[in-house]
Write a structure and sequence with these properties.
This protein is of the alpha/beta class and about 350 residues long. It has 2 domains: about 5-190 and about 265-335, Alpha/Beta hydrolase fold, catalytic domain (Rossmann fold, 3-Layer(aba) Sandwich), CATH 3.40.50.1820; about 195-260, no CATH class. The chain contains 12 helices and 13 strands. The protein has a 9-stranded mixed sheet with strand order 1-2-3-5-4-8-9-12-13, sandwiched between helices. Strands 6-7 form a two-stranded antiparallel ribbon. Strands 10-11 form a two-stranded antiparallel sheet. The longest helix is centred in the middle third of the chain and has 16 residues, at about 130-145. It starts with a strand and ends with a helix.
Length: about 350
C-alpha cells in the first residue's frame, strides 16, 4: 500500500473554519486483476479524514463512500488537480459550525481506459461493484478508525456515481444503510444507446482505443456502458458488444443494457430497500432526462411505501452540486449514520 498525505488551506474562509486532512493511497483490487482493458488493479483512493481524526486517537467514525462521475477521477474531486468542485473544502465548510457530525469520506478512482467503470462487474473493466462494496470497505475497516457496521456506512455519488450508488446499494443493505444519489445517470433502459443515424455513425467510426479519446462525450459513454454491461472476451480490441452493429440494432445486447438499468430492476430489490435507514436523491430541473428519471424513482418508492426524500431543484448537472453536498447530503448522513 502506497500513500501520501496532503493538507488544504482555505483562502477566504474565516479563521474558525475547521480543517480535515486528505490521504491518497493505493488499494489493490483482487477482482480488478486481469481486466481486458489493461487497467491497473492498484487503484488510487482519496480519503477525507475529519478535523478531529488526528487529535482523538481512540475515536471511531462513520464512513461515506462517495463515487465520482463519468470522465472524472478522485484527484479532481479532492483538489489534487483543478476541477469544478473541491470536495474537502465543501466538507470542511459543512463541519465548521458543529451541527453536522464528523465522518470519513472515501472516493476510489474509477477512471478506466473507457473513462469510467459504471461501477459494474465486467471481465473487460474488472469487478468494480465488488471492489467498492467488499474490497474497499474491508480495507478501510482494517486500516482506519471506522465504525465497521452497516448502520455507520453510507453510499453516495454524482452522475455515474449516483448510478453506482443505487446499483450497489440496493443489492447490499448488509453493507450500506443509507444512500444519497446526486443527479444519478443511467437509471432508465435506453440510456447511452445511440438512437439516431448520426450517433450510430460516430460510434461505428471508432476503430481502436485511441479513437475513444477523440470521440464526443456520448460516444465515449456508449463504449463505457458496453464495457460494463455487454463485455465480450472474444472480441478485441475493445472486448465489448455494441448495441448497434453494421447499422443494425442488436436486441440481445439492448436486453443486457436494460438489465443494468435500476428502474428496470428495482422491483427485485424492494425488500432490500426497505431495510435502509435513509434514502435520498435529487437533480436539477435543467438536467431534464435525469430529473425525469428520478421523478419515476420517487413514484416507484412511493407506490411501495418506502420512505425516501426526493427533490428537484433549480439547477443543472453541475452548477449546484457543491451546495447540495454541503446543505443536503452531509446533513442527511449526519442524521442517518450511527455514531457507535
Amino acid at each position: 500500500m502506497l500513500s501520501f498525505l496532503y493538507f488544504f488551506s482555505i483562502e477566504g474562509f474565516c479563521q474558525s473554519t475547521l480543517h480535515g486532512s486528505v490521504e491518497r493511497i493505493k488499494v489493490h483490487g483482487k477482482g480488478l486483476e486481469g481486466n481486458l482493458a489493461g487497467d491497473s488493479p492498484d487503484r488510487d483512493v482519496s480519503i477525507y479524514l475529519p478535523p478531529s481524526y488526528k487529535a482523538e486517537s481512540k475515536r471511531r467514525y462513520p464512513v461515506v463512500y462517495f463515487l465520482h462521475g463519468f470522465t472524472d477521477n478522485d484527484a479532481q474531486w479532492y483538489g489534487v488537480t483543478k476541477h469544478w468542485i473541491n470536495l474537502p473544502l465543501v466538507v470542511d465548510k459543512a463541519f465548521t459550525d458543529g451541527q453536522i457530525q464528523e465522518m470519513i469520506i472515501v472516493t476510489p478512482n474509477a477512471y478506466t481506459r473507457f473513462r469510467g467503470s459504471m461501477y459494474s462487474n465486467s471481465v473487460t473493466t474488472g469487478n468494480w461493484e465488488d471492489f467498492v462494496a467488499k474490497e474497499l470497505v474491508t480495507y478501510m475497516d482494517q486500516h482506519y478508525r471506522t465504525i465497521p457496521k452497516a448502520s455507520s456506512r453510507g453510499l453516495a455519488g454524482h452522475s455515474m456515481g449516483g448510478y453506482g450508488s443505487i446499483r450497489i446499494g440496493q443489492k447490499h443493505p448488509e453493507i450500506f444503510s443509507s444512500l444519497y444519489l446526486l443527479s444519478p445517470c443511467c437509471m432508465t433502459p435506453g440510456n447511452n444507446r445511440p438512437v439516431n443515424p448520426e450517433a450510430v455513425a460516430k460510434m461505428e467510426a471508432v476503430k481502436n482505443l485511441d479513437d475513444i479519446d477523440k470521440a464526443d462525450f456520448m460516444t465515449q459513454a456508449t463504449f463505457a456502458s458496453a464495457a460494463a454491461w455487454s463485455p465480450n472476451p472474444a472480441k478485441p480490441p475493445f472486448f465489448i458488444d455494441l448495441p448497434v452493429e453494421n447499422g443494425q440494432p442488436q436486441p440481445d445486447i439492448a436486453a443486457k443494457w436494460t438489465a443494468n438499468a435500476p428502474l428496470a430492476t428495482i422491483d427485485q430489490y424492494i425488500s432490500n430497500l426497505k431495510q435502509l435507514t435513509g434514502f435520498a436523491f435529487d437533480a436539477g430541473n435543467k438536467d431534464q432526462s435525469i430529473a425525469a428519471s428520478i421523478k419515476v424513482l420517487d413514484q416507484v418508492l412511493t407506490n411501495y411505501q418506502i420512505a425516501h426524500t426526493y427533490e428537484e431543484y433549480e439547477g443543472d448537472h453541475l452548477n449546484r452540486i457543491a451546495e447540495r453536498i454541503e446543505q443536503k447530503m452531509l446533513p442527511f448522513f449526519s442524521k442517518n449514520l450511527s455514531r457507535r
